[in-house]
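User: quick one, sequence for these tokens?
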């Protein structure tokens, strides 16, 4: 894991009403990420998690900078997606402070 004072990570947690809603949301977030988000300047990665209880989806998205993220969320497709999912989550931005990995084996 690399730490950087300019990279920003968003850990977005979505709350659903059960497994079917969770599966639909996972598919929707994946589609949005693959067709729109990954092509926007500054996007670095996204990792999608679903809770084992079927009630939560977490998307961890990393951007090169807060400025590029701010520009990306003004993209019409991003605005529409945020509006669509707004009732399900509250986005929070994080700056990485440290990281540990096992390294190359």
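Assistant:
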């Amino acid at each position: 894991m690399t730490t950087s004072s300019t990279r920003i990570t968003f850990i977005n947690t979505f709350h659903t009403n059960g497994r079917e809603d969770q599966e639909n949301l996972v598919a929707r977030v994946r589609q949005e990420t693959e067709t729109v988000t990954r092509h926007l300047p500054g996007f670095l990665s996204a990792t999608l998690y679903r809770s084992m209880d079927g009630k939560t989806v977490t998307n961890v998205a990393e951007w090169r900078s807060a400025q590029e993220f701010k520009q990306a969320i003004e993209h019409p497709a991003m605005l529409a997606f945020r509006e669509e999912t707004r009732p399900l989550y509250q986005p929070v931005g994080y700056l990485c402070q440290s990281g540990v990995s096992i390294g190359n084996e």
